[in-house]
């Protein structure tokens, strides 16, 4: 009799545990996004993962405390197992990005954010390096989804998209996806990619004049560790927002310098080297 009672008790606990796991597995909403960064984008359609190859990617998300970024909901402080950065090929990690969810009724402020990972092929994945991004405490419903990066201009869906526990596909690299605002991203070989060059993360790319991004690049190089001579031709190796092509070096003058990336982009986008670009996500 006692054994039968224990058996039933254990069985009930097992069912309760399994039920709780099932609820946990199906709560919140999941997003399977795809996005390309124009800075590290190569002609083959994949992004370069030089930051990962050089061991420069941080294992804790870099956005907390970064000017121009604020976490909401469960976002902030995300960490990753260093083994995730050992993966090579199309699924190798390029950098951290931030996904934001906004309700149509309060579009200027996210209800939830999460710092997650970007693969070379554009897939945005959770901190395990594989799974769709899981917002655990967000209720299913319609949300505007935005993706932001520390030195590229972010983008947001023009329409509110229904999100559920099953991952919703959102391809920001598709020409057919309508974005909020105008001229939110750039077309490179038939794929849409985020504008590069927001080195001072003020949601603008400015080549000349007040608030220009070249000043951030200049000071990064001039005061870099190892540049005792304050040489403007110095190649500063590190994880810098001034590194617009994300090759692991902030370069002001000389081959593969980061100034030319912004210069050529400005000419191509506006026809003027003095015209700036503005992030098209509402504040």
Structure commentary:
The protein has 283 residues and is an alpha+beta fold. It has 2 domains: 28-193, no CATH class; 204-278, no CATH class. It has 4 helices and 15 strands. The chain has helices at residues 2-26, 50-53, 214-222, 258-270, and strands spanning 29-34, 93-102, 112-119, 123-125, 133-135, 141-149, 152-156, 161-163, 168-171, 186-188, 191-193, 204-205, 235-237, 249-251, 277-278. Strands 1, 2, 3, 4, 5, 6, 7, 8 and 9 form a 9-stranded mixed sheet that branches. Strands 10-11 form a two-stranded antiparallel ribbon. Strands 12-15 form a two-stranded antiparallel ribbon. The longest helix has 25 residues, at 2-26. It starts with a helix and ends in a 5-residue tail after the last strand.
* Number of helices, where a helix is a run of at least 4 consecutive DSSP H or I residues: 4
Number of structurally distinct domains: 2
Q: Oligomeric state of the chains? A: single chain
Shape: globular
Radius of gyration: 21 Å
Q: Please mark out the parts with pLDDT under 50 across 5 or more consecutive residues, or reply none.
A: 1-25
Order of helices and strands: HEHEEEEEEEEEEEHEEHE
Into which percentage range does the β-strand content fall?
15-25%
Structural class: alpha+beta
- Helicity level: 10-25%
For the largest beta-sheet, the strand count, sense and barrel status come to: 9 strands, mixed
Mean pLDDT: 90
DSSP summary, beta strand count = 15
Alpha-carbon distance between the two ends: 66 Å
């Amino acid at each position: 009799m006692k054994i039968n009672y224990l058996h039933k008790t254990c069985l009930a606990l097992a069912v309760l545990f399994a039920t709780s796991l099932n609820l946990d597995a199906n709560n919140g909403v999941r997003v399977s996004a795809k996005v390309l960064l124009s800075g590290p984008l190569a002609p083959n359609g994949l992004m370069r993962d030089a930051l990962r190859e050089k061991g420069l990617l941080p294992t804790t998300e870099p956005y907390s405390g970064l000017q121009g970024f604020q976490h909401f909901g469960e976002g902030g402080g995300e960490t990753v197992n260093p083994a995730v950065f050992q993966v090579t090929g199309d699924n190798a990690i390029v950098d951290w990005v931030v996904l934001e969810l906004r309700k149509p009724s309060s579009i200027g402020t996210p209800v939830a954010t999460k710092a997650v990972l970007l693969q070379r092929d554009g897939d945005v994945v959770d901190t395990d390096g594989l799974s769709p991004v899981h917002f655990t405490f967000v209720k299913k419903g319609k949300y505007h989804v935005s993706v932001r990066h520390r030195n590229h201009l972010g983008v947001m869906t023009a329409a509110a998209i229904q999100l559920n526990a099953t991952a919703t596909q959102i391809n920001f690299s598709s020409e057919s996806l309508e974005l909020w605002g105008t001229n939110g991203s750039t077309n490179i070989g038939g794929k849409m990619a985020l504008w590069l060059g927001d080195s001072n993360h003020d949601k603008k790319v400015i080549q000349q004049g007040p608030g220009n991004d070249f000043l951030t690049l200049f000071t990064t190089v001039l005061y870099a560790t190892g540049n005792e001579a304050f040489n403007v031709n110095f190649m500063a190796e590190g994880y810098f927002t001034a590194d617009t092509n994300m090759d692991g070096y902030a370069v002001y003058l000389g081959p593969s310098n980061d100034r030319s990336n912004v210069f050529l982009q400005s000419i191509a986008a506006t026809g003027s080297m003095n015209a700036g670009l503005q992030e098209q996500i509402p504040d």
